[in-house]
Amino acid sequence: MTGEExxxxxxTVAGLGVSGASAARALAAAGARVxxxxxxxxxxxxxxADRLTGPVADGGAGPAIEVRxxxxxxxxxxTELVVTSPGWKPDSPLFAAAEAAGVEVIGDVELAxxxxxxxxxxxxxxxxxVVTGTNGKTTTVQMLASILAASxxxxxAVGNIGTPIIDVVLSxxxxxxxxxxxxxxxxxxxxxxxxxxxxxxxxAPDHLDWxxxxxxxxxxxxxAYEGNRVACVYNAADPATEALVREADVVEGCRAIGFxxxxxxxxxxxxxxxxxxxxxxxxDRQRAAAELAAVADVRPAAPHNIANALAAAAxxxxxxxxxxxVRDGLxxxxxxxxxxxxxxxIGDVAWVDDSKATNTHAAQASLAAYPSIVWIAGxxxxxxxxxxxxxxxxxxxxxxxxxxxxxxxxxxxxxxxxPDVPVSDIDRTDTGAMAAAVREAARLARPGDTVLLAPACAxxxxxxxxxxxxxxxxxxxxxxxxxxxxxxx
Length: 489
What we know:
Blueprint: E1 10-14, H1 18-29, E2 33-38, H2 43-53, E3 65-69, E4 81-84, H3 93-100, E5 104-107, H4 108-115, E6 127-132, H5 137-150, E7 155-159, H6 165-169, E8 177-181, H7 184-188, E9 197-200, H8 208-211, H9 214-222, E10 231-235, H10 239-247, E11 255-259, E12 268-272, E13 275-278, E14 290-294, H11 303-318, H12 323-332, E15 341-346, E16 349-353, H13 360-367, E17 373-377, H14 387-393, E18 397-402, H15 407-417, E19 423-425, H16 433-444, E20 450-453, H17 466-482
Parallel strand pairs: 1-2, 1-4, 2-3, 4-5, 6-8, 6-9, 7-8, 9-10, 10-11, 11-12, 16-20, 17-18, 17-20, 18-19
Antiparallel strand pairs: 12-13, 13-14, 15-16
Helix pairs in contact: 5-11, 5-12, 9-10, 16-17
């Protein structure tokens, strides 16, 4: 079903951020009577409210939208539907009031799905290829969009990647297919989204304070597979993702497609002699394979990034893309900053910025990519533990430099699992802390080592976000490049 009717319905939008504002505008344009509620009441939410309710000529949506801030963030009388921004927790009082009143709560992604219509030229609504998982979502979606574009498809990368999907769905552009990144939050509030095909890249504990348990978190990730028509792509190295496929209610004939860093079996994509190959979407998958790309076409060619490329390739092949487009799309792809980004080589030591590794699962993948590492880590742990991470990386560690609010937790795990690895503690949180960490890492590093910023923690104790943290690292490394040799140690 597409094009659900919203004329004259009273819809409450929870949250005044990017997705909430997009949802409010879309609903107003669809004829709904919209009330936006937000618990904030400072200068920023007030400015956002002014932009939303101002004259249409000034970019607002006119009188169809009312905004209630602060204490007004309760369920308005007469609400027939609630559309929530992803960050609002399921146990919020607003949702309890909605449940008590028998009012449905959905997310902005679900709203976009319900508002789909054919494009102005009659093109049917675009297919959705969905990507989720604990780590690697954004990179995989960007790779997928690059592959789809290389095939000639009209496409866009949307969703949790930063471009609100509702804006693209309602743009009127005749897209053929969308590469859709969905978080567990977004999936939780998306009961009827039905993708052409979907991939769950991996599962590790994350956002458990929001979901309440690992089982609930996994179940929300598994919603990506519900109703898939062609392929459910899973990680052969992560049995939890395959279990989600088994539990999903899919369209008859939908196939389970695994991706692996090893030699693929039938109905899998994988790696053979430095080549990415397909044994899933070929005529004789028992005895034949199609070459998709070379490992060298994936940049950077770290193991977890190759896995991302394989997942993207599987989704693209499920949609009908030819092998040559997989190769061309991967060659054209350039990763975002702060994702295993090579910053510099100094005296045969490589310096790598993976500030995006904000949890232990992401850091584990990053550490596995290099044989001899001086590791810079620390920040806000968000309830994480570090024993498994440090035990697995111990043999690769030349030294460790710790900074940030919860660095002691990592130090304690290192003492248990890597007691012989030298650890330097940066006991400061000012703007010069990262520069001090970089100088200390330079002292510990030897030729052939990689100095790796893979914090395994969030950044907000010292930085605005992981981007600012990575920028500080890169700036400190470049200062090191420019420093006289005597000042590097």
